[in-house]
Amino acid sequence: MQKQDAVIPLLRIFDVEKARAFYTGWLGFRVDWEQRHAENFPLYFQVSKDNIRFHLTGHYGDCTPGTPIYIEWAGDLAAHQAELAEKDYRYCKPAIIQEPWNDVVMHLTDPFGNRLSFAQIKPA
């Protein structure tokens, strides 16, 4: 299988347990790998789900908190939103909205202010 080009956003985190609860516990991503220079250093790790990958980093200076990410969701966005609603995550209750440019989008904000927009693209 030929490897494809990929863009992997880095997202700043400040608490590993909150990051795990949000990304793996609620969103259903899996941890692919973790890296820490030594015991008292920040964690850097990759999470993924389907073809979506993020690097989550506790390292100061790696990236800016509050990063917006626009994700073209290939599956059924309504089903994805229903699955998340079933988990009843205390800190986020996303809705699906129709954007003026014709995309159907579900906006989420992680515990560190990073904004994830899952978009089901519709033809104009």
Structural overview:
There is one protein chain. The protein has helices at residues 16-26, 77-87; strands at residues 10-12, 30-35, 44-49, 52-57, 68-72, 96-98, 104-109, 115-120. It is an alpha/beta fold.
Helix content: 10-25%
- Percentage of residues in strands: 25-35%
C-alpha end-to-end distance? 33 Å
The secondary structure category is alpha/beta
Mean of the pLDDT scores? 93
Give the count of helical stretches: 2
Q: Sheet bearing the most strands, described?
A: 4 strands, mixed
Unreliable parts: none
Give the CA-based shape. globular
Strand order of the largest sheet: 1-4-3-2
Nearest-angstrom radius of gyration? 15 Å
Number of DSSP E strands: 8
Summarize the helix and strand pattern as letters.
EHEEEEHEEE
In short:
The chain is 18% helix and 33% strand. The longest helix is centred in the first third of the chain and has 11 residues, at 16-26.
List the helices and strands and how they pair.
Blueprint: E1 10-12, H1 16-26, E2 30-35, E3 44-49, E4 52-57, E5 68-72, H2 77-87, E6 96-98, E7 104-109, E8 115-120
Parallel strand pairs: 1-4, 5-8
Antiparallel strand pairs: 2-3, 3-4, 6-7, 7-8
Question: Keywords, please?
Answer:
124 residues; four-stranded mixed sheet; 8 strands
